[in-house]
Amino acid sequence: MTRPRVFPLRTGLLTSLLVGACVWSYLPVFREMLDKWVSNPQYSHAYLVPAFSAYLLWRGRAAAPAGPTTSWLGLAPLLVGVSLRLLGGFFYFSWLEAVSLLPVLWGAALLLGGRAALRWSWVAVAFLAFMIPLPHQAETGLSQPLQQVATRVSTYALQTVGLAAFSEGNVIHVNDSRIGIVEACNGLGMLLLFFALSAGMALLVQRPWLDRGAILLSAVPVAVLSNVIRIIATTLLYETAGQRWGDLVFHDLAGWLMMPLALGLLWLELKVLAWLLVEAPAEDYSPMDFVMKEGGRLQPAR
Fold first, then answer.
1. Domain endpoint, select from 106, 132, 158
2. Do 110 and 74 meet the contact criterion of CB atoms below 8 Å apart?
3. Is the dihedral of CA 26, 45, 253, 243 positive or negative?
4. Of the N and C termini of the chain, which has fewer Cβ atoms inside 10 Å?
5. Is 299 buried (19+), middle (13-18) or exposed (0-12) by CB count in 10 A?
């Protein structure tokens, strides 16, 4: 009969101190992130990110350490995280303060559970980056190009289907309808959401790394394509069903339909990749299948 593993008192005290220090130090950061999630629709997906990270930990629970194993190497990433936290607070750079949470969690895992805990948790901790709002400079720098791309591609697509569409700035004119591609509809929010979706799917599917990399990189074209489909469908509704239905779809229903549309596009991409890239099956050789070659090396007989 095996004795139950006793949780060392030293490790318990160290865990309590680390958890208490992290909660006390990052409480203002969590509050600011939550305010951004509530007020900015571009980060409406951020609520699901911690839940998915917890699922990744549960999914890989077989690799979790059997018990506490202290590794003082964890002080190095902890020091990096604390330094970033102090720099962000000194320069009033909230994004740097939020990002500092990642090395702090990696350091805590290494410090309390050793390398086994770090191998088990580093991917789940890294996924938390998708809940961190981008810096204002990055949001501004990405919003304008995305507005221009959405406006131009949608205008060309509408002209292709036979509508007399032209763009003026970030506004598309089709007969008497005017579709304004404002910052809230420029695709940045969908780009962040689709990067999270693509990363989550790449982590979950059992596919070669080449397929996973292609899925992750496809977040940008999928976001642009989904936004263009949204604009085209709205414009057609304006022209056929009137402004009431167009406003309903563009401002209310379209945001909810983007996620299943993105998942459908990613699923279609997986099917195309499975058709294009065929993984070679692993061959099981028995000792009789090998012959001795010159130099004493064994090679397959066929």
1. 132
2. yes
3. positive
4. N
5. exposed
